Description:
Order of helices and strands: HHHEEHH
Strand order of the largest sheet: 1-2
Distance between the termini: 70 Å
Amino acid sequence: MEFDIDLNAIWFHLYQLGIAFVLALPIAINREHRAEGAGLRTFPLVTIASCAFMLVGMSVYDGSDAEARVMYGIITGMGFIGGGSIIKTNSNASGTATAAGIWLTGAIGLAVAYALYEIAIVLSLVGFLIFQFSDYLKKERGH
């Protein structure tokens, strides 16, 4: 059995995962300081994992149909993880923004995997801006 490692592929994948990590940080830092629950660990891990799953899928499977199935699985998985962050009480539901943020960071990871850096940057920027400034625009409940 031959053990063959492509060092160029390792560097490329580290580069991709590094970009995914960095683009998740603005959202992760915001959520860490403004919300309880998901933050500096969760959002970057979701982004890196979704990027990694897609990179593996692109490497293993031939054809866009197979890659699309991998992407569908990632999207479904991100929805499942996000759904776990939503807590419903009698009159309120909390965690919906966290759930949406988890889904968004999954999309960032997918965009990075396909080297669609412009989309990933826009998603990161828009997500950060929404989390950073939307509190000022929300109607307060109970008043």
